[in-house]
Amino acid sequence: MTHSLVCPETVSRVSSVLNRDTRQFGKKHLFDQNEETCWNSDQGPSQWVILEFPQRIRVFQLQIQFQGGFSSRRGHLEGSQGSEALSKIVDFYPEDNNSLQISCLGLGGGWSVLLKAMPW
Fold it and tell me: Is the pTM here over 0.85, yes or no?
């Protein structure tokens, strides 16, 4: 059984918010468990989400959900340990639909994780 590593102490940052409307599209909607809300970025060549966890974590699975028609074609997961520079851990290729997508990463180690979605 999996559980979310995101907790109240997890710090999140995003690349942008559509029309700077944080009330309707802000990062708070990333993890609110409400399928009627979402984080929505502005347009641009690279959009990203950064999560800083309060302790070292192990990432075994990445779960991500897009609105159909608004998916990235390619993304990659980056991480670091402590104050080290971020480095790529793995690429992933989401489908363009609104289903929950699960990537089993099989990663070990204690990673602070940056999820970065990049268009092709």
Answer: no
